[in-house]
Amino acid sequence: MSIIDTVEDHERFRAELASIAKDGRRKWVYARQQKGRYYTARTLLSIVLVAFFVLSPFVKVGGHQFMLLNLLDRSFVLFGIPFWPQDMWLLVLIFLLCVVTVALFTATLGRIWCGWMCPQTIFMEMMFRRIEWLIDGGPKEQARRRGGPWTFDRLWRAVVKQSVFAVLSFGIANVFLAYLISSDTLLRYISDGPTAHAGVLIPLTLFSGVFYAVFARFREQACVIVCPYGRYMSALVDENTLAVTYDPVRGEQRGKGKDREGKGDCVDCYQCVTVCPTGIDIRNGIQLECVNCTACIDACDAVMDKVKKPRGLIRYASLNAIRSGASHWFTPRIAAYGSVWLVLVAVVSVLFMLRSDIEITLLRQEGSVWVTTTEGVGNYYRVEIINKTSNPRNIQFDVISPKGATVKPLVDAKSVKPWSEIKGRLLVIVPPESVVNGVGRVTIQVREGENVVKTETTSFLTSQSGSQQ
Ligand code: SF4
Ligand code: SF4
Asked: What is the pTM of this model?
């Protein structure tokens, strides 16, 4: 059974999902391709977004990949700016800001994300469905073949289509992996060959399988059944939210035929239904399944052009705007969301600007030996320098107490590369008389030119926890 056969059932839309039959079986959605101004705009945006998705892990800025989300190593790079484990609090705030941004955008612009920017919609509608149309033809041919016998024609098309889907899914999975483990690691794994890193084949196969299953089979069900955003979106929209909406004031009473006496502008042609990738009839009002893809706007505009009526019977509008003709999108709720959003933007911006541009950790090396030299006694200290700027940094070390102490850096801190981290050791040597009963204190100063970056006072041991070399 297909959605094409059952469009007459639209009055049951509140009780049932359009793509699920009463007995729970799937009703396959054979969406028709509808060209139009929104489709063109979405195609152009999709090209930009897919290019961004594919290139981001491979483009380097200051030696770092443009986008990296390495959860295992807690290494994140957003738009070329690295975030270190020490910046995790800032990442949490940025995540919170994203959540509030989505809430604000959803309350004002509805599911604009779903229709225009969501990877699921972009890959499904702009890539996989287009390939399907190219190989299998339009909805009628697809439905005919699917319901018919396994002829050679059906077989070769199915093999070609599923093969292309599988290769595309594998490609997407590789790019996805490059975000998680870094493109350098991925390219190294590829050049080493699959047998050299069999462990990575497991996530790669898993991701490829999931992408293939979603785009080849699960499709709109991901938006309708699985996506949490689709669920919580329902709590965010109200009658003032902008959405792809049918105008019943203008459209009803709908009806076919040239005699329009007593009828509205809707000619009941079902073109808006046949293009819908989730198989719904937008004329039933705002529905959970609608991803605001705008295909029905283009379809209806084409019909309105033909019947010489103004475009926009289906358009971006709020329910209140349809009813009253006036749009009141700036409601107290939007003002509240907007205020929280502005505060968060300000907090994140200020904290980002105040984020120290160099992070230096100095610790006595635990369990390390103490050494005796001709100049005195020495302890080792661990040093870690994180350069969070795009300029190289020249870091020097001095011991300002006790008197007569010296420091030998065992780390090349004279040129710490931009956006990088170095680790090493310092050997601090103090006069023996400055250590009483095996315990002393040293004050190490970290400088960059004349600028003192950090002053750290820490312990110096020549007994108990320290052992002589
Ligand atoms: S109702 Fe229109 S906007 Fe909503 S999913 Fe269907 S075609 Fe897209
Ligand atoms: S495409 Fe427009 S005219 Fe045709 S059924 Fe849909 S709303 Fe009515």
From this structure: 0.81
